[in-house]
Model the fold of this input.
Amino acid sequence: MSGWVLKVGKELLQRIHAHGVETYPHECCGAILGRDSDASREVLDLLPLANRRNDSPRNRFEVTPDDVRLAEKTASEKKIELIGWYHSHPDAPARPSEFDREHAWPWYSYIIVSVQKGEPRDTTSWRLHDDRAAYDPEAIETVAHSASA
Amino acid sequence: MPVIVMIPTPLRAYAGRQERVQLQAATVGEALSALTHQFADLKKHLFTDDGRLRSFVNVYVNDEDIRYLQKDQTPVREGDVVSIVPSIAGGCVNRAG
Done:
């Protein structure tokens, strides 16, 4: 086991699920904002974004560099950090695909929610290995209330 | 001439935890080459095995995307800021769009 843990407030997790349901059967995507330290990483806010992959939104998502810069600016204004990204897998498992891995960045947390027939199911989180060869699972620890961002 | 390269958060661990690195370069290509020479672990995250910039790695000189300038031959001048900005992509397996 990797030992990575991502703390997420129940309400924030529900917002990710709701976004996946809202865009179903297309993939949703958004930025994860929070705090990171050697000891722990916690999600404190989300920035839902438009899936820019208009040609294949059922099985692909894309966040443009302009949206990445918007997410960084939003995090900075809230005095927190851009710590990762979430997206949905409509009618597919909450496991990273080879396409996910090829396009992933290290350090970021990647939350995936599986949305089956319009209903949110499994939710997982992952971090890319330093050598880009694979992902490590990151345990999601659901907390009752997130600290205010 | 001295230029500043801004390192995005996910890559700072491979660049001595620095947000910005000052390098000597006359073009964007030279700046990235000097950067990966200084911090070898950055290379695999910025370039493919055959040496091309990865498709989700975007490079700006000040606020201009180098794809719309002269790509890696884009000249840089003293005080220019070269920013590495991620784009994010992914998606599930084996489903037609």
Observations:
- Strands of chain B lie at 2-6, 20-24, 57-61, 64-65, 81-86, 88-90.
- The mean pLDDT of chain B is 93.
